[in-house]
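Weekend entry, working from home. Most of the wet-lab plans are on hold until the incubator is repaired, so I used the time to fold the two sequences that have been sitting in the queue since the last round of cloning. Logging both here for the record. First:
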Amino acid sequence: MDFFVQQTLNAIALGGTYALLALGLAVVFSIMKLINFAHGELMTSAGYVLMYCGLHGVPFALSVALAILTSTVLAVLMERVAFRSVRNASGATMLITSFAVATVLQVLFQNLISSRSQPVLLPNFLSESVTVAGFVIGNNKIVAIVATVVMLGFLDWFMKYQKHGIAMRAAAEDFAVARLMGIRANTVIAGAFALSGLLAGVAAVLWVSQRASVDPLMGFTPVLKAFIAAILGGLGSLRGAVAGGFMLGFIEIYLAAFLPPDMQEFRDPIGLGIVVLLLLLRPNGLIPSPGLGAVKA
């Protein structure tokens, strides 16, 4: 029983990271119909900021704030420089643009910083653990769970009660009507990218706190998993992104914990098979999004 509870906590921590990344993808997709595969590079940029701040002795709390700020600003710049000019183009054009942006940033990371994995100095408390009700829990897992809860609570409050969040919800429902109501396209889309960058920055901090290193391709795997989670939850659905992220986290951790040793090499195919099975049962995702019109601005 103790082992099961421990693995459940691990699943919540990992699922929370996937949920934050999937939310970042879903926020942009719900408005622009764009799957931004450069989202992973937002994570990587935040990871490198943490690395450089650690090397220069910057306090960890300030390092985290700077890392999140960097990914947020980079996301806004990404929208302004790369995506605004192709906003009215086909979905394929925007998708190729996102791949191009991701590739350019990866090459810049490799050539300007390093093509190898670099260690990130983290405070000692993240590598320590505490005992709660007889269970030994790593501090990094506790931080991941708390940060996920705080971010999900903030996002729920922002979308329900802040005018920019309400404008994003309106644009996601029907962008053309929202514009007729006076909502500015540039403001809403830039806000969606800023929010996705914020979520990517927080996810990057949680990811780096688990592995204590960063490399130019650090964001590729988690964002690919987040994309799967967003589809599993219902692409374009914010609640679905959260559900899909946690579901994928539970699938991965439970398979790693409970599959027989001679089956561990098939863990990823089995996990994807479970996802496919769930999509066969729920083709539109766990919490489907209503049909949304593409942005025309």
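Second, folded right after the first finished:
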Amino acid sequence: MTRPRLIINRLDADRIQRLIDSQQHDDELATRLESRLIQAEIVPPDDFPNNHVSMRSHLRLTGSRSGHHELMLRYPDPASEECIPFAFGSTAPSLQPAIAPLCIMSPLGIALLGLAVGEQITLPCEDGLSDIIRVDAILHQPEACGQFHL
């Protein structure tokens, strides 16, 4: 199996590194996110491919166990300094917003950053099984619209 080619734009990489550096304690998720940055190819925002997941991208995903979801990859809320991660299967689909927020400081957020449409990741679930999650589409990507200031 070939490892997916991770691509992250320079602005996202810089902002994510500042987020990691601001962590108050040694956090496993921050370490995983920093490892993701090290593995990635960093490109200028205007050269970022429109079929890869970036910060503030709106995504359509399909999980082998969790079904279909639309999410927006985002930074933690600076007002509360908390990041409530989206959890597959934790809420009935009818109660989820059309596009649910997905925090970058979550296992799923970290795993999706830099992936391309059609690629998939395996995410362990609380019950000990795994969910294979595929990126079906990027419904909106800031870089594709020239929105580099977000």
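Plan for Monday: verify the second prediction. Confidence is low (pLDDT under 50) at residues 89-96.
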